[in-house]
Amino acid sequence: MNTNLSMAWLREAVGGIKYPPDRRRVEKELYAHVMQRNRDFLKDGCTEREADEKACAVMGDPVEVRRDLAAIHRPFWGYTYLILRLLLFAMAVWGVLFHIGGFLKLGQYLVPLSAQAGMTPDHWMSQNGQAHSGDYTFRLCRAAYAADESGQTWLLLELKATTPDPLLGGPYYSALWNQELQDSRGRVYSVKPLSQKELVFNTRILLGVQDLEPGADWAVLTLPGPEGPAWLTVRLKEGSE
Known about the structure:
The strands form two sheets. Strands 1, 2, 3, 4, 7 and 8 form a six-stranded antiparallel beta sheet that branches. The mean pLDDT is 80. Helix 1 packs parallel to helix 4 (62-72) and helix 2 packs across helix 3. The chain is α+β, with helices and mostly antiparallel strands. The protein has helices spanning 4-14, 20-43, 48-59, 62-72, 75-109, 113-116, and strands at residues 120-126, 130-133, 136-147, 153-162, 180-183, 188-190, 192-198, 202-210, 218-223, 230-235. It folds into two domains: 4-73, no CATH class; 113-235, Conserved domain protein (Immunoglobulin-like). The protein is rod-shaped. It has six helices and ten strands, in the order ααααααββββββββββ. A hairpin with a 3-residue loop joins strand 7 and strand 8. The protein starts with a helix and ends in a 6-residue tail after the last strand.
Protein backbone atom coordinates (compact mmCIF):
# COMPACT_ATOMS: atom_id res chain seq x y z
CA MET A 1 0.00 0.00 0.00
CA ASN A 2 1.47 3.36 -1.06
CA THR A 3 0.97 5.76 1.87
CA ASN A 4 3.57 8.44 1.10
CA LEU A 5 0.94 11.14 0.61
CA SER A 6 -0.98 9.98 3.67
CA MET A 7 2.14 10.13 5.89
CA ALA A 8 3.02 13.61 4.59
CA TRP A 9 -0.55 14.74 5.30
CA LEU A 10 -0.34 13.26 8.79
CA ARG A 11 2.96 14.96 9.67
CA GLU A 12 1.59 18.32 8.53
CA ALA A 13 -1.70 17.88 10.41
CA VAL A 14 -0.14 17.10 13.83
CA GLY A 15 2.86 19.43 13.47
CA GLY A 16 1.18 22.20 15.47
CA ILE A 17 0.76 20.10 18.63
CA LYS A 18 3.71 21.12 20.81
CA TYR A 19 3.24 18.70 23.72
CA PRO A 20 4.87 15.40 22.56
CA PRO A 21 2.56 12.93 24.35
CA ASP A 22 -0.51 14.66 22.89
CA ARG A 23 1.08 14.76 19.43
CA ARG A 24 1.84 11.03 19.48
CA ARG A 25 -1.65 10.14 20.66
CA VAL A 26 -3.41 12.29 18.03
CA GLU A 27 -1.05 11.05 15.31
CA LYS A 28 -1.92 7.46 16.18
CA GLU A 29 -5.66 8.17 15.99
CA LEU A 30 -5.44 10.03 12.66
CA TYR A 31 -3.21 7.33 11.20
CA ALA A 32 -5.90 4.76 11.91
CA HIS A 33 -8.51 6.93 10.15
CA VAL A 34 -6.31 7.55 7.08
CA MET A 35 -5.49 3.86 6.70
CA GLN A 36 -9.16 2.94 6.95
CA ARG A 37 -9.99 5.42 4.18
CA ASN A 38 -7.17 3.96 2.08
CA ARG A 39 -8.53 0.44 2.46
CA ASP A 40 -12.07 1.57 1.58
CA PHE A 41 -10.94 3.19 -1.67
CA LEU A 42 -8.81 0.17 -2.58
CA LYS A 43 -11.89 -2.04 -2.20
CA ASP A 44 -13.74 0.30 -4.57
CA GLY A 45 -11.13 -0.49 -7.26
CA CYS A 46 -8.79 2.50 -6.92
CA THR A 47 -5.08 2.14 -7.41
CA GLU A 48 -2.83 2.66 -4.40
CA ARG A 49 -1.92 6.13 -5.62
CA GLU A 50 -5.56 7.07 -6.18
CA ALA A 51 -6.60 5.61 -2.80
CA ASP A 52 -3.86 7.63 -1.10
CA GLU A 53 -4.90 10.87 -2.78
CA LYS A 54 -8.61 10.38 -2.09
CA ALA A 55 -7.99 9.46 1.56
CA CYS A 56 -6.05 12.70 2.09
CA ALA A 57 -8.74 14.72 0.33
CA VAL A 58 -11.48 13.24 2.51
CA MET A 59 -9.49 13.99 5.69
CA GLY A 60 -9.38 17.70 4.74
CA ASP A 61 -6.79 20.41 4.25
CA PRO A 62 -3.83 19.49 6.51
CA VAL A 63 -3.05 23.19 7.18
CA GLU A 64 -6.56 23.80 8.53
CA VAL A 65 -6.48 20.56 10.51
CA ARG A 66 -3.11 21.59 11.95
CA ARG A 67 -4.53 24.96 13.07
CA ASP A 68 -7.59 23.37 14.68
CA LEU A 69 -5.58 20.71 16.49
CA ALA A 70 -3.06 23.28 17.78
CA ALA A 71 -5.92 25.36 19.21
CA ILE A 72 -7.35 22.32 21.02
CA HIS A 73 -4.10 20.79 22.31
CA ARG A 74 -2.38 23.74 23.97
CA PRO A 75 1.01 22.94 25.53
CA PHE A 76 0.20 24.71 28.82
CA TRP A 77 -2.18 21.98 29.97
CA GLY A 78 0.09 19.22 28.77
CA TYR A 79 3.11 20.54 30.61
CA THR A 80 0.99 21.28 33.68
CA TYR A 81 -0.06 17.64 33.71
CA LEU A 82 3.57 16.56 33.32
CA ILE A 83 4.71 18.81 36.19
CA LEU A 84 1.95 17.46 38.44
CA ARG A 85 3.04 13.91 37.68
CA LEU A 86 6.64 14.78 38.53
CA LEU A 87 5.54 16.42 41.77
CA LEU A 88 3.51 13.37 42.74
CA PHE A 89 6.49 11.14 41.99
CA ALA A 90 8.78 13.37 44.07
CA MET A 91 6.30 13.29 46.96
CA ALA A 92 6.15 9.50 46.77
CA VAL A 93 9.95 9.25 46.85
CA TRP A 94 10.10 11.71 49.75
CA GLY A 95 7.48 9.69 51.64
CA VAL A 96 9.48 6.48 51.25
CA LEU A 97 12.70 8.16 52.37
CA PHE A 98 10.91 9.85 55.28
CA HIS A 99 9.52 6.55 56.54
CA ILE A 100 12.88 4.83 56.17
CA GLY A 101 14.50 7.67 58.11
CA GLY A 102 11.72 7.49 60.69
CA PHE A 103 12.27 3.77 61.23
CA LEU A 104 16.01 4.31 61.60
CA LYS A 105 15.43 7.12 64.08
CA LEU A 106 12.91 4.98 65.98
CA GLY A 107 15.48 2.20 66.21
CA GLN A 108 18.00 4.65 67.63
CA TYR A 109 15.35 5.97 70.01
CA LEU A 110 14.98 2.51 71.52
CA VAL A 111 18.68 2.35 72.46
CA PRO A 112 19.12 3.40 76.15
CA LEU A 113 20.52 6.89 76.55
CA SER A 114 22.94 5.66 79.18
CA ALA A 115 24.40 3.12 76.73
CA GLN A 116 24.72 5.84 74.12
CA ALA A 117 26.68 7.94 76.62
CA GLY A 118 28.88 5.00 77.66
CA MET A 119 27.42 4.80 81.20
CA THR A 120 26.49 1.79 83.34
CA PRO A 121 23.64 2.69 85.77
CA ASP A 122 23.42 0.82 89.09
CA HIS A 123 19.71 1.32 89.69
CA TRP A 124 17.16 3.69 88.18
CA MET A 125 15.01 5.76 90.57
CA SER A 126 11.68 6.89 89.19
CA GLN A 127 10.89 10.63 89.31
CA ASN A 128 7.79 12.73 88.60
CA GLY A 129 8.94 16.35 88.43
CA GLN A 130 7.78 18.65 85.64
CA ALA A 131 8.68 22.21 84.62
CA HIS A 132 8.08 24.63 81.73
CA SER A 133 10.78 26.51 79.85
CA GLY A 134 9.85 28.64 76.87
CA ASP A 135 7.49 26.67 74.59
CA TYR A 136 8.56 23.33 76.04
CA THR A 137 7.65 21.13 78.96
CA PHE A 138 10.48 19.23 80.65
CA ARG A 139 9.64 16.15 82.69
CA LEU A 140 12.17 14.37 84.88
CA CYS A 141 11.56 10.66 84.19
CA ARG A 142 14.23 8.92 86.27
CA ALA A 143 17.64 9.21 87.89
CA ALA A 144 20.47 6.79 88.57
CA TYR A 145 24.01 6.58 89.84
CA ALA A 146 26.34 5.26 87.15
CA ALA A 147 29.98 4.69 86.32
CA ASP A 148 31.62 5.76 83.08
CA GLU A 149 34.30 3.82 81.19
CA SER A 150 37.05 5.20 83.45
CA GLY A 151 35.16 4.17 86.61
CA GLN A 152 34.15 7.72 87.60
CA THR A 153 30.77 8.02 89.35
CA TRP A 154 27.98 10.16 87.86
CA LEU A 155 24.41 11.02 88.73
CA LEU A 156 22.34 10.56 85.55
CA LEU A 157 19.13 12.54 85.04
CA GLU A 158 16.85 11.50 82.19
CA LEU A 159 14.51 14.23 80.93
CA LYS A 160 11.76 14.26 78.34
CA ALA A 161 11.11 17.53 76.49
CA THR A 162 7.76 17.91 74.71
CA THR A 163 6.23 20.63 72.55
CA PRO A 164 2.68 21.02 71.18
CA ASP A 165 3.99 22.37 67.88
CA PRO A 166 6.22 20.07 65.76
CA LEU A 167 7.19 23.01 63.53
CA LEU A 168 9.29 24.40 66.37
CA GLY A 169 11.85 21.65 65.85
CA GLY A 170 14.07 20.44 68.66
CA PRO A 171 13.60 21.57 72.27
CA TYR A 172 14.93 24.80 73.65
CA TYR A 173 18.39 23.39 74.26
CA SER A 174 19.96 26.69 75.32
CA ALA A 175 18.20 26.03 78.64
CA LEU A 176 20.24 22.86 79.00
CA TRP A 177 23.73 24.29 78.66
CA ASN A 178 23.77 26.38 81.82
CA GLN A 179 22.11 24.32 84.54
CA GLU A 180 23.09 23.58 88.08
CA LEU A 181 22.07 21.05 90.69
CA GLN A 182 21.84 21.98 94.38
CA ASP A 183 21.33 19.18 96.89
CA SER A 184 19.43 19.33 100.17
CA ARG A 185 22.65 20.25 102.04
CA GLY A 186 23.15 23.37 99.94
CA ARG A 187 26.01 22.01 97.83
CA VAL A 188 25.99 23.08 94.15
CA TYR A 189 27.17 20.96 91.20
CA SER A 190 27.47 21.65 87.49
CA VAL A 191 25.36 19.61 85.06
CA LYS A 192 26.52 18.35 81.69
CA PRO A 193 24.31 17.23 78.75
CA LEU A 194 25.45 13.72 77.76
CA SER A 195 23.11 12.50 74.99
CA GLN A 196 19.73 13.08 73.39
CA LYS A 197 17.25 11.41 71.02
CA GLU A 198 14.63 13.31 69.05
CA LEU A 199 11.19 12.39 67.78
CA VAL A 200 8.61 14.77 66.32
CA PHE A 201 6.83 15.81 69.51
CA ASN A 202 9.32 14.85 72.20
CA THR A 203 13.01 14.51 72.87
CA ARG A 204 14.76 12.45 75.53
CA ILE A 205 17.80 14.09 77.12
CA LEU A 206 20.40 12.58 79.43
CA LEU A 207 22.16 14.92 81.88
CA GLY A 208 25.11 14.02 84.07
CA VAL A 209 26.45 15.33 87.38
CA GLN A 210 30.02 14.43 88.35
CA ASP A 211 31.38 13.79 91.85
CA LEU A 212 28.06 14.12 93.66
CA GLU A 213 28.81 13.65 97.34
CA PRO A 214 26.59 10.97 98.93
CA GLY A 215 24.21 11.64 101.80
CA ALA A 216 21.66 14.10 100.37
CA ASP A 217 18.01 13.07 100.22
CA TRP A 218 17.01 15.28 97.31
CA ALA A 219 18.31 18.01 95.02
CA VAL A 220 16.93 20.78 92.81
CA LEU A 221 17.81 21.03 89.12
CA THR A 222 17.66 24.58 87.73
CA LEU A 223 16.85 25.08 84.03
CA PRO A 224 17.41 28.69 82.88
CA GLY A 225 14.82 29.73 80.30
CA PRO A 226 13.74 32.76 78.24
CA GLU A 227 11.02 33.61 80.76
CA GLY A 228 13.07 32.92 83.86
CA PRO A 229 14.38 29.76 85.54
CA ALA A 230 12.44 26.52 85.98
CA TRP A 231 13.10 23.98 88.73
CA LEU A 232 12.85 20.21 88.97
CA THR A 233 13.14 18.27 92.23
CA VAL A 234 15.30 15.14 92.09
CA ARG A 235 14.97 12.33 94.65
CA LEU A 236 18.41 10.90 95.38
CA LYS A 237 17.62 7.89 97.55
CA GLU A 238 17.95 4.41 96.08
CA GLY A 239 14.64 2.64 95.54
CA SER A 240 12.56 5.84 95.65
CA GLU A 241 9.24 5.60 93.84
